[in-house]
Amino acid sequence: MARAGYFVSLAVKLVTELDLRKSPWNEGLGISGEFLDRQLYLLGCMVHASAAFEKLGEHPLRDLRQQFQETEIGRLLLTVAVAVRNAMDQNPSRAEYWLQGVDDNVGALMPLDGKNKTESVLKFREACNKLIHCLSINFDYKSKKPKRGMALIPLVHLYGINAMKGNEEWKATIDVNKFIRVASQLT
């Protein structure tokens, strides 16, 4: 009997729902532009501070860089990609408006199927898709013998499988600076 009361109160509660699905102001999850700008700022700081840590010599910040750098940069890239893609999907005309005249090439995409090695331009929206669906993320390092936690170059390499195309493997390389530039136009 208690369950029936729960469903009655839930049904009453649903009547007060404000349905914005068809509203031109629908922003999807409604993540604020200020939040996204902050994430982009942090992403830029992490990528570009990485090399500056080399000048510190033996310093605890270098140990912290080794512990957190790749994980935190990956988290920020994914956070931005999900939030921006959600906003783009909820209001495509808004994204088209903000990207008018903007070069949204942020990297390169290449199939890894063995036959076709043709590299194509990676547009911002597709870069967000690749970040969301990648199986692996690799970072580009300044060292010729790289290890996690070393000084970075602002490039990330994503690998994944396109299930819609017969499990075709792909590699996407994203220029983090270009990604930030385009994403900042949408926030």
Structural write-up:
The structure is a single chain. By secondary structure, the protein is an alpha+beta fold. The chain has one domain. It is about 50% helix and about 20% strand. The protein has 6 helices and 5 strands. It has helices at about 1-15, 35-50, 60-90, 90-100, 125-135, 175-185; strands at about 105-110, 120-125, 135-140, 150-160, 170-175. Strands 2-1-5-4-3 form a 5-stranded antiparallel beta sheet.
Main beta sheet: strand number and arrangement?
5 strands, antiparallel
Q: Determine the structural class based on helices, strands and strand pairing.
A: alpha+beta
What is the helix fraction of residues, given as a range? Answer: 40-55%
Order of helices and strands: HHHHEEHEEEH
Mean pLDDT level? 85
What distance lies between the first and last C-alpha atoms, to the nearest angstrom? 49 Å
Uncertain segments are none
Radius of gyration: 21 Å
What's the structural domain tally?
A: 1
Shape: globular
Strand content: 15-25%
Strand order of the largest sheet: 2-1-5-4-3
Work out the number of β strands.
Answer: 5
**Number of helical regions:** 6
